[in-house]
Amino acid sequence: MIRPLIAGNWKMNKVPTEAATWLGDLKEKLKQTDAGHADILLCVPATHLGAMVAAQGFLALGGQDMSQHESGAYTGEISAAMLKDAGASYVIVGHSERREYHKEDDALLNAKVKKALEHNLIPILCVGESEAQRDAGKAKDVVIAQLKADLEGISFASADDLVIAYEPIWAIGTGKTATADDAQEMCAAIRQTLAELYPDQASRIRILYGGSMKPSNAQELLSKADINGGLIGGASLKTDDLLALVAAAK
Ligand code: 13P
To answer: What CATH code is carried by the domain that includes residue 165?
Structure first.
């Protein structure tokens, strides 16, 4: 049994002072909630980490992107060491919004995954197909190719050192969700590929579903054998919704 991971991706939302207030509210509500069965993670803008670091006792923090470089003259970039030192233990790599708007390709993402692991940050590697790719019957090929390219030459010590998020692009922020059966089918294919790459660890690597996950559909998605949690955008911005998602993971 894999311990579920309920991971919020706040994207570019809230300011640090709001984040601190939000966290206080969450902490109070957590006292009245049975949440011991799941890990909770918030991937927030790097500017918010300082205001949220006090939360480390009851949830984990993560970044949303990082540089593939160690340090130096890269204006505007944030390094793995900076995220780690600011309190992050995870980092999202290869979100479709980075692949699309910032033209991040698999070679770059492979370098980012390597750099994250060097700094003991757990990469949450995102993969997923577009609507056109799904309609053309190519969804599985696209996702497996991303996975293999992004993980090329990468090894790690423990199954806990890597998280995969399956996020069909057409389901992100659209209100459209993959059916639980379609999401399971893809997550099973992802695990099959992981088994080829990491035979000793694949059965314990966490695979998340992301794309319009919300309290009304989470339980069905999270009941599937190869869906070990969620990467949640919009619904992670509200404490009540986030806690409902945690409850759905039981
Ligand atoms: P939504 O939950 O808002 O669809 O976003 C999903 C996502 O992109 C998480 O990384």
So the answer is: 3.20.20.70
